[in-house]
Give the backbone structure.
Amino acid sequence: MMIMFGLGVGLLVGATGVGGGSIMTPLLVLVAGVPPVSAIGTDLFYAAVTKTFGGASHFHKSTVDLRLSLQLAVGSVPAALGAVFLLSYVEDRVGLSIDTPLIIVVATAIAICGVAMLWQTLFPPPLRPERAPRNQWLAAVISGLLVGFVLGLTSAGSGAVLALLLIAVFQLAPHRVVGTDVFHAALLLWAASIANIILGNVDFALAGLLLVGSIPGVLIGTKISVRLPALALRCALAGVLLAAAGSLSVKAGLPLPPVALVVWFAAVAVGVAVMYRRVRHTHPELTA
């Protein structure tokens, strides 16, 4: 089951460029029954290994803004380390009762990532000449602090949020957004995963099984991505994230009857489908 989880998430990451942490952590918590703290630590380590391959590939293709990646890391790495150790401190003081609030935090982060991905996909900012904003280093450090803290605390996909910032704030060319995002993610994930290794939050056997599936999944997804409708894939992934956020909320004890969860799933599916059809007709260039 873990190998299949890795394969499925790897295919999504290879085909869309995002979605790894946001999908894997809910799977480990909801389906496999892994405790949230261990699920987050294991997911961070597994994602660090996976993103390292992607970051190296993009670096060799010259699609990475190295200066911006390092500026982001100045804020994101300390923030992620602080979040990991804060989580460990609270767990030691509170114990098992931290599971419920932590699941709520993860669900919130995943919902935000889903909305950000949907917004970025359906309403992309207008293309402008690549131009660094004023005080880029300050904007990069602040953005890194936000992204790093959320990732260290939840492991949930900061990729969608950071990609939106790279386009809207830093005005990177589209072909450099993914490369810079993935390269920075590799730096950030290794910092957060090393902290989790020190704290004993990583299940290496579980991570190994996930990698057995995810590495070929990423390679296959990358190859087939050019043949698949990118807009439909990213819309579907955003819908999955929103549905996962609802499931995690119920897991955390939100007093909702089963029918309410079914209605939420249906509403997300219908909403994403309607928005996709509308954008496909008004902006056919996005379906390429």
In short: The chain has eleven helices and no strands.
